Amino acid sequence: MNILRKSIIAGVTVLSLGSAAFAAHAEEAPPKHPYAATKFDPAKRAERFEQRQQKLHDALKLNTSQEAAWKTYIAAIAPKQPAGHADRVAFRELPAPQRMEKWIELSKTRLQQQETRLSALKTFYATLSPAQQKVFDEQTAGGPNHRGMHRRG
Length: 153
Prior knowledge:
Mean pLDDT: 79
Low-confidence stretches: 148-153
Number of strands: 0
Strand content: under 5%
Structural class: mainly alpha
Distance between the termini: 54 Å
Largest sheet: none
Order of helices and strands: HHHHHH
């Protein structure tokens, strides 16, 4: 009888400690996707852009002759209202050929924006020293967790 009572007490103790540890872990866990709550907020998006660009600017250690090119580059790549975020309901109601035409039109607009950014990038990149180019390449590689890519180990 004594052994049974000790076993029950030990079992209850183990279960209570395990559930307490599980509850503590669950409270400490960060939100799964903290970015998702703010990704569509234009003010937050602009703030994140400015923070990233300031970090890059500081890492590049630009001289005074490079500042004008930097400002032109930033103006060209600054986030604008995304091209082609049409009303999803109205878009679904279009006939298939018209939907495809709309997709192609939006793709052309996005491609034009990318070409503008590329031109600004090439102009700015040419003003950088080889050491600055290396820093720029490392800082802007996009690597881990960039736009849905998986983190590298």
